[in-house]
Structure formats: C-alpha cells, structure tokens
Amino acid sequence: MTLVSLVDLIAGARDGLLVSFPTDTVPALAALPEKAPLIFEAKQRSQDKPLILMGANAEDLWPYVQGSESEFKIWQEVANRHWPGALTLVLPASHRVPKQVNPADPTTIGIRVPQSAIAQTILAQTGALATTSANFSGQQPLQSLAEISNQFPEVLTLEPTEFNGKIAEIGVPSTVSKWTGRNWEILRQGTVKLSF
Q1: What share of the chain is helix, strand, coil (3-state, %, to 5)?
Q2: Percent of the chain with pLDDT over 70
Q3: In this structure, is residue 195 part of a structural domain?
Q4: Closest CA to 45 of 56, 31, 60
Q5: Number of neighbours of residue 52 by Cβ within 10 angstroms
Q6: For residues 169 and 128, which has the higher predicted lDDT (pLDDT)?
Q7: What is the pLDDT of residues 39-62, one digit of tens each?
Q8: Counting Cβ atoms within 10 Å, is residue 68 exposed (0-12), middle (13-18) or buried (19+)?
Q9: How many domains does the chain have?
Q10: Cα separation, 59 vs 1, whole angstroms
C-alpha cells in the first residue's frame, strides 16, 4: 500500500510513475502521456480502449488537438460552458499526442478539465496526464483510496489527509462527446447533458 503526500505524488508523476488521485467523478489512475503503457498494463486494459488527457485548464489541453479555426471556436464554446466539469471531448489529435494514449485510433484524443481542486493542483504542476478510472478493466470504478492502494499496490496513491479524505460523491464517469467534423456524438452519457 503506497499512500504518499501531494509533493511526493507530483514528483512521482513527473518522474514517469503511475499515480492515483481523486477527481470530480471517479478516482483517476494517471501517468505522463508517454508513459501511458503503464496504465494499460496495470488495468489489464485492451489497447482499443483509449485513455484521456486531463489538464488543469483548457489552455494546457488545446495543443493536443487540431482543427480549423471555426472548429476551435465551437470546441472552446462547449469547453467554456462545461469545464471544469464532468465532460470529456473527443477531438482530432495533434502530433503532440503520444500514440500510446490511444493505440487503436491515434487520430483522436479525449480531453477534460476536472472540477476538483486537488486534481487541478496536481495537474497544474505535472502538465496534462493520461488518465482513466482506477479499476481493473471491465470492473466498477473503485471508490475508496484503500481499495485503490490494495488493487494497485505499485501505484502512488494520494494520502487522504492531503484532501480531507473526501472522494467525489458522484461516482459517475464523465459524459463523453465526440466531434464528428460537423456535430457532436455522445459516446457515453454521464452527469453533463449537452445541448446543441
């Protein structure tokens, strides 16, 4: 069981280690984008299930996507309405996204800014991280830090005293919406309802 302080978790993430911390939806398993294979391995996750990039703010994430000026305007309007929050946008990936984040389809990338002070604090100091829910693939997301550190003993898990021990009450993964080139397609409905 590897519970660590905020300082050690941030240092570990920057050094390329796997980390886990609370978000506004379900607890995240995270690593630097180029270290994404560590997440697939730990979760026993199929390569056709992409990870998403989580950032402290939208400005940290836009360099990872590419589109026309008019598309960026549409994406930014949606982001301004729903971020920080439980909405993942799946957009065309720029050359900055390591192929390992989405091995089956490196042309797209999911991005999100969480509504969680502790997650934003971490992401502001690590830069965007490749993330997914903390659980074995196909199983329910784990809800407690004890469960996470038991299931993933090798992962640096944030010490509960660092954030009042509160894990998000929601426990529902984010809404996932994909840009088709003309409009949005909802891939997974979460708590955020998109209106177009």
Answers
A1: 35, 20, 45
A2: 95
A3: no
A4: 31
A5: 22
A6: 128
A7: 999 999 999 999 999 999 999 999
A8: exposed
A9: 1
A10: 35
CATH number for 176? 3.90.870.10
Show the domain range for 48. Answer: 3-188
At residue 160 the predicted structure's pLDDT band, cuts being 50, 70 and 90, is confident
Q: Is residue 114 part of a domain?
A: yes
* Pairing label, strands 28-31, 129-133: antiparallel
**Interatomic CA distance for residues 23 and 46, integer angstroms:** 23
Q: Which residues, including other chains, have CB under 8 Å from residue 77's CB and lie 6 or more apart?
A: none
Q: Does some domain include residue 193?
A: no
Tens-place pLDDT, residues 68-107: 999 999 999 999 999 999 999 999 999 999 999 999 999 9
Q: Would residue 67 count as lying in a domain?
A: yes
Question: Please, where are the H alpha helices in 22-151?
Answer: 36-43, 58-61, 69-82, 117-126, 145-151
Positive or negative CA dihedral for 96, 101, 104, 109?
A: negative
